[in-house]
Amino acid sequence: MSALNNQPDLFFLIGQQGSLLGAVGGEGSLSLTYLLSLLVAAVALLLFLILKLRVQAFLALILASLFVAVGSSQELTGGAGDLELAKIGAEIQNGMGSSLGFIATIIGLGAIFGSLLEHSGGAQSLAKSLLKLFGEKRASWAMVLTGFIISIPVFLDVALVILAPILYALSKKTGKSVLAFGLPLLAGLMVTHAFVPPTPGPVWVAYELGVGLGWVILFGSIVGLPTAIVCGVWLPRRMSEKLYIAPPADFDEGPEEGEEVLPSFLSVLIMIGFPILLILVGTIVKELLVYNIDTGLDRDEYAAAVSDAVAGAPLRMKFLYFVGHPIIALLIATVMALIFFGYLRGYDKNELMEVTTKALGPAGIIILITGAGGVFKEVMGASGVSDALREVCQGWGIPVLLLAYLFALFVRVAQGSATVAMVTAAGLMTAMVEGLSQAQLALIVVAIAAGASAVSHVNDSGFWLVSRYMMMTEKQTFQTWTVISTVVSVIGFLLAALLWVLLPFIVALIDLALAWKTTFFALA
Prior knowledge:
This protein has helices at about 30-50, 55-70, 90-120, 120-135, 140-150, 155-175, 180-195, 200-210, 215-240, 265-290, 300-310, 315-325, 325-340, 350-385, 385-395, 400-415, 420-430, 440-450, 460-470, 475-524.
């Protein structure tokens, strides 16, 4: 039986029907009302700390988690709670530790890889090559694709900073508004940054929900590319016609860098696409290996069966499984970037050391925030809050995909950070996705990413970055960037919902392909 077919009815309600783990609200346990009140108070505390007191998100998430843990402790609740006060510190430690092994490595490697690409001029090479390919009349298409590709390894804010001169030069040369080129670029950057690993947000959500990155890359790209085209090509066209923004008066394009100075377009594409291809191949190999495993097994039995299947696989499949692991794939790509974009281009080893070390600064902040998200998830589960939330949502009858979107949307609008919104939503959803297939879980990740992209406004640092580099007032930024971010969110979710409905047909095709491949490898 394929792991892909382990899916309940397409229009199922949240989680599994039946009794809750730990019998929330039963005799000798905390009531459903108390646990939900604790959750509401924790979210309110989190928002108060971030918005009112301006506490860093990492510290705010830890404090909100501690609030839930203490509030559900046996000592405070007269023995009704599940947590012991003396063991809360260990729960926080476990939540942080269990998250960081995978996440920290992926984010760290991704940050170094992106920094090397940026330092070598790979982003500029990609943008200039696509502009030459599409021509000035279709420059918006070139900018969308540039943003969509470059934001896979490079953070959105960094990509905007290094590509801004190209936007200004195009505006000056064509006489069009900076927005005619800037908004398409931003749409592409935003979509990939939220929807496609190995950027931190989707990587974290995928890890917490237990879905392979290959599945998230696949569905994130299927949803993300048409979303980027709609919001980056068609939507900005009228905006740039109504609102003319001239390039900076003191902007000097300077001498045109020769193409021989920059990495080639092909080398940039290969370097970005190589780790993604390895991860996708690793995902396919895993599905081939687990195809005949009974998905009705419990988690430990299923993990043991997968381990046995991998151990008994042919050497070539073991090798592909090995190099397709996200950590190994990104490590290979980072070493390749260090060699081809670093040493072979004549950069001094001390300069490369400085570049790669500097890249870990921003990555460290994100790693700590995602680690704090792991603490939040751990405490939600250990305290019984996750189970209580699941029971209430079952009663409401909200489809799980919509709920994931709404959780992320609420936190995003309230506090501004897309990363914090995704981290918080993932922590709330972990108890509600049991029994779902990898394909379904990947669509849950996309729905959370869509919700976390919506309504960028004054509490979002990206809002001010766009306002500054696009030289717009706050009102103009609301009329353009906020609208685009909201449309990205809505279209992204609607496409994810469409794929959710079509999933049985997609799964049937994939199962057919896997069965054919399994037979082929057996005969080979």
